[in-house]
Amino acid sequence: MDLSFTEEQKAFRAEVRRFLDEKLPKRLSDKGRLGQRLTKQDYEEWHAILNEKGWLAGNWPKEHGGAGWNAVERHIFEEETTAAHAPRIVPFGLAMLGPVLQKFGSKEQQDYWLPRILNGDDWWCQGYSEPGAGSDLASVKTTAERDGDHYVVNGQKTWTTLGQYANMIFCLVRTSKEGKPQEGISFLLVDMNDPGVTVRPIVLLDGEPEVNEVFFDNVRVPVENLVGEENKGWTYAKYLLTHERTNIAGVGFANAGLANLKRIARLEQSGGRPLIEDPLFAAKIAEVEISLMAMATTNLRVVSAAAAGQAPGAESSMLKVKGTVIRQEINALTKQAVGPWAMPFVSEALEAGSNEGPVGPSYAMSATPHYLNNRKLSIYGGSNEVQKTIIAKAILEL
Ligand SMILES: Cc1cc2nc3c(=O)[nH]c(=O)nc-3n(C[C@H](O)[C@H](O)[C@H](O)COP(=O)(O)OP(=O)(O)OC[C@H]3O[C@@H](n4cnc5c(N)ncnc54)[C@H](O)[C@@H]3O)c2cc1C
Fold first, then answer.
1. What distance in angstroms lies between residue 384's CA and the mean position of ligand 1's atoms?
2. Catalytic residues
3. What is the distance between the alpha carbons of residues 95 and 68, in angstroms, rounded to a whole number?
4. Which of 231, 295, 343, 350 is least surrounded, with the fewest CB atoms within 10 Å of its CB?
């Protein structure tokens, strides 16, 4: 398999770089570089800039307003935007719901919701997980009972990322208790401003309320908000997860993290010389860099096969495990590199423009919060333990 980029792909990379030079606001890339918090407005600003260029929905076909990129082009875009410290594209509407509506939604749903996703009229969040339904997603208990031309929804979702910003949530709900658990699930679009919806923040290890609990108490949802057929939601849910897991390797993020680690290790001192020259620390960096290079090559193989029309198999589980472990290792080394500066945590310093400066150099202030926040990587999107079982069954045939 030839993994080198074609002339066309190289030209595309150059075009993405030019675009980022011209259009990525310095205010946003500075925040990314320093690991400062992004606000809802920051994400919306970046989405609008990409949308104007027609690059917001790289994975959508052109007929729906997307860029229609293949997997290699999406990979190049991802590499360049992460290297430039651009905000990530919030995935819920664009990478998750959009493809589901395009494949299973009615024409009315497509015409109404898809342009709204592109224009940023709605902020979507993902209502899959529940307190008793995470890895075992098919055991969702939130119910939706038909009452005339409405469903009445009762129950609870949890770990809802950025639900505090959202006005819409796509939910897996139980519409039947007959048969196998997977057979009684439906896919419903719920307006979070409707009476009976309560959002409660969950504060994570880094002190950030990034995720939420969402409660539904007799929420009336119009039947036209059902996607596809009643009780067929499991099929749509699985289709969505295949989109959630694209770019799962996070090569761009790992590259950016590694570059940051090396920069810090050049600035920090150990025994009177730069930390990067300490043989023990240099060996640790080399080890993680070798793992990253090997994983990036596997990722290119998968991306290249996907561009040729092949569906990724258990390789995406391998990439999930390796990609997240590598990013967590880079976080751990970055925390080690800043030494005692990893201890004081001034939460306000992570807000751009705050009067509270960090204790220690500015490059150190996000080391601990990132280390703590990225514990999530090996849990969400299918936990690493579950991925290992998939690998054991599909590749090792155990
Ligand atoms: C930061 C963060 C953001 C999230 N955002 C969202 C979101 O926006 N929307 C949403 O719907 N969900 C979201 N999730 C939920 C996420 O998908 C679940 O946390 C994940 O599916 C794991 O489920 P659980 O937390 O219930 O853990 P459990 O499934 O209870 O697992 C607990 C432990 O047991 C292990 N385990 C479970 N089953 C098996 C098995 N069969 N074999 C081996 N080990 C197993 C797991 O690996 C884990 O270590 C988010 C989670 C986090 C941490």
1. 9
2. 244
3. 13
4. 343
Mutate to test the pocket of ligand 1, among 123, 135, 162, 370 (most ligand atoms within 8 A of CB): 135
Please name the fold of domain 245-394: Butyryl-CoA Dehydrogenase, subunit A; domain 3 (1.20.140)
Confidence of residue 246 (pLDDT cuts 50, 70, 90): low
User: Residue 243 above 70 pLDDT?
Assistant: no
Work out the pLDDT band at 286, boundaries 50, 70, 90. Answer: very high
126 lines ligand 1 (CB under 6 A): yes
Residue ranges of domains in the chain:
7-89, 123-231, 245-394
Q: What is the pLDDT of residue 245?
A: 64
Give the distance (Å) from ligand 1 centre to CA of residue 211: 13
Cα 191 to middle of ligand 1, angstroms = 25
Pocket flag, ligand 1, residue 203 (CB < 6 Å): no
The response to whether residue 284 sits with its C-beta less than 6 Å from ligand 1 reads no
What fold, for 123-231? Butyryl-CoA Dehydrogenase, subunit A; domain 2 (2.40.110)
